[in-house]
Amino acid sequence: MKHLGLVIFLFTSLWCQAQEQFSISGTIKDITNGETLLGATVYLKDTNYGATTNEYGFFSLTAPEGTYTLVISYVGFKSVTQEITLNKDQKLDFELEETATSLDEIVIVAEESERVSIKKPQMSVAKLNANTIKEMPAVLGEVDVVKSIQLLPGVTNNGEGSAGFHVRGGAADQNLVLLDEAIIYNTSHFFGFFSVFNADAIKNIKLYKGDIPAKYGGRVSSVLDVRQKDGNSKQFGLTGGVGLISSRLIAESPIFNDKGSFLIAGRASYAHLFMPLIEDVKDDKISFYDLNLKTNYEINENNRLYLSGYFGRDIFNLSKIIENNYGNATGNLRWNHVFNDKLFSNLSFIYSKYDYNIILDFIELDWNADITNFNVKYDLGYYVNNDITLDFGVSGLTYNLNPGEVRPSSETSPINYLKLDEKRAFEGAAYISAEHQISDKLAFNYGLRYSAFTRLGGQNMTNYVNNQPVVYNSDLGIYERGEAESETYYSKGESIKTFGNLEPRLGVSYQLNEDASVKASYTKSTQYLHLLSNTASVTPLDVWTPSGQYIKPQISNQFALGYYKNFKDNAYTLELETYYKTVDNRIDYIDGSDLIGNNNIETEILNGEARAYGLEVLLRKNKGDFTGWLAYTLSKSEQRTFGGNAGGPGINNGDWYNTPYDRTHDISLTGSYKLNDKWRFSSNFIFQTGRPVTYPNGQYTYEDLSVATYSSRNEDRLSAYHRLDVSATYSPNKDNDKRWKGEWVFGIYNLYNRRNAASVSFNQNNQTGLNEATRISIFGMIPSITYNFKF
Amino acid sequence: MTFVVFASCEDVIDVDLDNAEPRLVIEASLDWEKGTAGNEQTINLSMSTPYFNTGEDTSVSGAIVTVTNTNSGAIFTFNDQNDGSYTVDNFVPVIGDTYRLDVSYAGENYEATETLMSVTDINSITQSIEGGFDDELLEVNVYFDDPADEENFYLMRYYEAGDLFPYFEDISDEFVNGNEVHDFFEKEDDEDNNEAPFEPGDVVDIKLYGISEQYYNYMRLLIEQYYSGGNPFSSNSAQIRGNCINPTNPDQYAFGYFRATQVNVTSYTFQ
């Protein structure tokens, strides 16, 4: 019933239009390269009529008949103003010029327009723009989008060199990571040292930590929406960089008689080229590469096609021991169609695949696994009037999961061929949401998403005695695998289990004055796909598994409240947010769970719950020679799992325990100072509470070995993590007449050489027989140098 | 170069740990060596200690230790040697029979049951350089046939005379059912870890145990945690529960395990 109320509210609002209204619509682009600008602001001066551009640079603004001054603005670009007489619907395209002709660097910028962000109900979102990230100090000079977002409040990693990221106490698999709408299942290269996003090919990044718009679904923690550049439609251009670990080259150019453009980007590491020269590692190989492709074609002013793709690969060979390669491949064909000046649509056909292969030579085993999905999406934006914008659409997604195929890797191998059951599923969704300006001060964002998930057959399902895949052994006080009773075969196309969930999303903002507002939001979301990992860190070998008979979908409810203020003429902004999030049906692993090559994962897991809450503070200085921000997060993230159907008290005795990504305190301080046209200096400082870990609380001798004993899960913590990074950027020629522009970036990561523990292991010393704690730290002080160019 | 850059630093640090209450440890391994009568058996009792207090004498004397064959009803009473060990010389091992262990100590009663598992013969033992992890170092290879018609679990124990510790491996036939199984043991050239590669003349004691699935699960966890405890890519460390329970006071269970196995015992001298 509560949803019905919303809908009635919405439609009565639609009918309340009075005086004659006209629309202006069009596209906003960068004048130098023709890239569409996302989130640019269009407004009528001295009125409340305004709009922002969507993911494709399209805007639509509706206002009563009259004469106005139209202002188009975008951070880092010169504003354009134009007098207009609004007496009919009209189409107007604009091109903006950058204020400073720098290299295309990414920077975490202030909200595109403070004027709108104060007013708009959308909260808990962090945006990154293709402008200046490169000046932020990075490990080995490798610019990294995923590492950059970790400098924002509410976002952490799981220690140096670990894959993925964690948002508001959520797990890495609870982030929906989209590259041009295609799902990226593994965001890392080199087992987490670098991310798969080539910063030079990226236009725009948005991270929703909460208040997730209804058009996104499928993950319960966050959405990272990464958009690739379209390619320069004005002239041919080359961009590149040479770093210690990898090099990049990007070519872009207009095509089809300026009706379109393309971009092709390549990035590859080359350390492996030198490895044969070093005796110790001459048979080893460790490398990665990736390719980004994007092209678009304008059929006419109302129709445009986009084709984008990504292909990335990691190769890791340790002579005679392990050969491993893995990577993502994605493709997306899109059709933008503008029905009229108020109705915009996009139809996408998306393909996405992640696969890995591992060969263990010493046991002559060859292992393959993959996840493939196809997705068809149709999204529409209807700009009803100045006060109401509607987004609605449908989506259908098929999954094909191959959790593992084992082959002998040689003729003499003792390994038997084994293929784990392939799993299939279909996920459909429909949504509608409205952004509704009720009054000058009050705005709502309300939406409803319905998602349905069907686990499809084509496999046997195991039935267990008493329907218990996991059984509590009360004698030994442990959880054990249940006893299989029989098997049921489901044919392809037959449904094994179906789920349906309504996911309401609600946001509200109230403007206190010109420079301050409060916002609140509620998001419910559902996740049908789970990443199986019983290790502290996500590894490339972790397997995704769909919900079904024994695994329930994760459901999260998040409430957030925020206060936003601009002061000193927008030179500073303050954002305060607090959130409370619960996740039902979070998978947890019984002690001693064995996930590798397991066809019956349900015998290793129980359905638990998780909760997280916290306070986030972000204070930014947006203007002047010195810019930067201070981010502070105070938070808690924990989980609990009862025995349920399996009996017994549950995992960890059914008590709440810290998730591995619980960080009580997390502080990031980032600053950039422009000395003059040639030199710029940047610095980061990071401090985090140590990662929760489980340390021994005793030992005993068994079979001549000292065996550690443990108490509760994650009761201890590594020591606090902190480090300081600095970098300097030198741009020798700022001469605008020369096409070739280059810059040098000198960096030092971990300046004071802090030995941050990536882990602490407890071992018995082979020489003395005594037990000891060994700290493993990954990055000490690392200097780097990178050369970037643009032609 | 990447390795130079990525080479992680390791150092030993001081860590303050919680100390759990000491708990009884039962190391009751009824191992029937193939080709012997298996009448001599020893059970060891000790106490657990704080993690860094290895080497303390924690042997437990004064306990009453019996093993009962639940199929035949035969009872074997172990004699307290007053050094933590309890022995018998009249034990009768029967493959497939189930045995129950009873330990009575300090007012608490502990019990455990286990079935005596058989083990297949070792086909051959060879040495090689090409195989193993490192192509330039010697390793010893053990081959044995896995029976096809049943699930089998094995424990391998390698020990080179002079070493402080034996080396264990848990093996299941999950991926190799019915085939000739190959296991190898190679030592690294690692001075930091006091490890030197095998050389001609080195002698390795080799034991191949046939074990129960439950004991396999216990040893799999123990081995994983012993060799990679704290490694972020290993599964989370957790208490390892054996099969020695305290029926009247379940929280007062004992550490360790009561196993009953058949074992191949041999040794190999590198040529």
From TrEMBL, chain A:
PROSITE patterns recorded for this chain? TONB_DEPENDENT_REC_3
* Signal peptide region: 1-18
In the bilayer, the protein is annotated as: Multi-pass membrane protein
TonB-dependent receptor plug domain span: 141-219
Keywords, A to Z, come to: Cell outer membrane, Membrane, Receptor, Signal, TonB box, Transmembrane, Transmembrane beta strand, Transport
The places in or outside the cell where this protein is found are: Cell outer membrane
User: What is the predominant subcellular site recorded for this chain?
Assistant: membrane
Q: Which residues form the TonB-dependent receptor-like beta-barrel domain?
A: 306-751
SUPFAM superfamilies linked: Carboxypeptidase regulatory domain-like, Porins
Per its UniProt record, what Pfam families does this chain match?
A: CarbopepD_reg_2, Plug, TonB_dep_Rec_b-barrel
The family line of this record is: Belongs to the TonB-dependent receptor family.
- Protein's name in the database: TonB-dependent receptor
Organism of origin: Winogradskyella marincola
